[in-house]
Every structure is written in C-alpha cells, then in structure tokens.
Amino acid sequence: MDYSFIIRRAVPEDAPAVYQILQKAFKEYAQAAGVKELEALNESISDVEHEIKNKVVYIAVIDNLIIGTIRVEIIGDESFISRFAVNSSYRNIGVGKALMNLVDKHLQLEGVKSVSLYTASKYGTLMRFYYGHGFYVESVSHDRGYPRARMVKEYPRK
C-alpha cells in the first residue's frame, strides 16, 4: 500500500486529534514498557492545546487524518523532545522517521547544540529507533518507578 503524508506545524484546532493519538500511543507504550503511571496520560485536550500554542508541535497527516505528532521545546542552545507518537495503524511507513528528521532540521536551523528525550529503557523497539537516529543513552533513572533512559543527540557545531 502506498502512503503519502504531509507534516506541518500543529494549530490549536488540532488539539483534540493530537490528544487522541497521544492517549492511544501512550497506553500502548505503558503496556509494552510495563509502566503503570504516565504523565502523558494525565494531559487534557486543553493541556495539549496549550502546548501547541507554546511549543513547537509537528503533526503528520494522511487524508486530513492526524496520524503522528512530536513536541519540541527549545531552552537556550538545548532542546527536549516529548509526546512523540505515531498511530499504530501507520507505523513502519516512515512517519516517525520523517517527524524526527524535520525536528533535526528545525533544531539545527535554530542553532541548538543538542536534543534530549526520555524513553523506557526496556522498550527495545523505541530504543533501537532512537539509536538509529543518532541518540545515545546519557543516563538511566528510576524516579518514575521504571528504568527511564535519558537519550541525547548532539548536533555538529557550525
């Protein structure tokens, strides 16, 4: 099957659809990682709308259906990725890779020196995905009741 998708900045009106993707994806993530409580599952639609207004949020869209999202916050010359999710029906067709590549380009244009994120270190599929995109494990913490890897990607200085 051929898929053609676009990626664009999210607007506040996208919040309900982004919320639905995050809820579904993070429930799957929690189950796969053996995690009982996740901050992402406590967000409301208005929280998502607030984040869209105040951070960089990209979405992937097929036929007017939002199928993926990624949130980025820039703090000085560093940045942080959160709420990265792709609808399970559309995984392994390049959506996550395209979202991550766009974030890389955006951050490099902004002069950011590094980006970090957290993921469950026992979730092998995600760990491999992030390794494949140039991230490395900087540390592992158990502050949320499960082994959480802080992964970092450094950008070359210009």
Descriptive notes:
There is one protein chain. The mean pLDDT is 93. Helices cover 34% and strands 32% of the residues. It contains 4 helices and 7 strands. The longest helix is centred in the first third of the chain and has 19 residues, at 15-33. It is globular and about 40 Å long. The protein has a 7-stranded mixed sheet with strand order 1-2-3-4-5-7-6, with helices on both faces. It has one domain (6-154): Aminopeptidase. α1 (15-33) crosses α2 (45-54). A hairpin with a 2-residue loop joins β3 (65-75) and β4 (78-86). With 158 residues, the chain is of the alpha+beta class.
List the SSEs and their pairings.
Layout: E1 6-9, H1 15-33, H2 45-54, E2 56-62, E3 65-75, E4 78-86, H3 95-109, E5 114-120, H4 124-132, E6 136-141, E7 148-154
Parallel strand pairs: 4-5
Antiparallel strand pairs: 1-2, 2-3, 3-4, 5-7, 6-7
